[in-house]
Amino acid sequence: MARFVSAHRLPQDTETPGLRDMKESDVVGVAAALNKHLYNSYKVHITFTEEEVAHFFLPRNGVIQSSLIQGEDGEITDFVSFYTLNSSIIGHMDYNKLYAAYAFYNFTSNNDPERLKALFKDMLIIAKKREFDVFNMTEVMKYKHMTNELMFKPGDGLLAHYLYNWRIKSIQPSDIGIVLV
């Protein structure tokens, strides 16, 4: 167990310069940057309105955490988010809840995979500071390249997407830019 804990130890503080929590004044910039990223990166994606971005992404304790990096020109260059989905623990004397964070929508400038990996590591640190027990991600989007290096392990469930009334050919999970909550 000591080896496991040592291998999964995280730094105390985030490491990416300029990373900060999203604010209400960021909604317009996040909407533009997120929609551009989704359109350019995925065959199947959502286009968010500014109202939807405010509703789904403005940080709310126990619900959603969103952080970003803003360039010198004021443009949003990087964005990371995770939502909360806790589970009940039945029949344990000491614990009754498992606090789980789930990766939501995330992007980096130029889709840099190494930068995204660094930002994911920062999300793990943020989740740990907020006392989450576990951090999950689904198989959609372009996260597969970093799962092993960040020590994510496959779960025991399968998530299937059925898009009714859509006429699309078979696609890979990395081509889907939708996270279902």
Overall morphology: globular
Q: Work out the number of β strands.
A: 9
**Could you name the CATH class?**
Alpha Beta
CATH topology (level 3) name: Aminopeptidase
SSE string, helices as H and strands as E: HEHEHEEEEEHEE
| Secondary-structure class | alpha/beta
Number of structural units classed as domains:
1
Give a description of the structure.
The structure is a single chain. The mean pLDDT is 85. Helix 2 crosses helix 3. The protein is an alpha/beta fold and 181 residues long. Helices cover 25% and strands 18% of the residues. The longest helix is centred in the C-terminal third of the chain and has 17 residues, at 113-129. It has one domain: Aminopeptidase. The two termini are 33 Å apart.
Write out key terms for the chains shown:
single chain, 181 residues, alpha/beta, Aminopeptidase, 4 helices, 9 strands, globular
Write the layout of secondary structure elements.
Elements: H1 2-7, E1 20-21, H2 27-41, E2 44-45, H3 50-57, E3 64-70, E4 76-84, E5 87-88, E6 97-98, E7 100-103, H4 113-129, E8 134-136, E9 176-177
Parallel strand pairs: 2-9, 7-8
Antiparallel strand pairs: 1-3, 3-4, 4-7, 5-6
Helix pairs in contact: 2-3
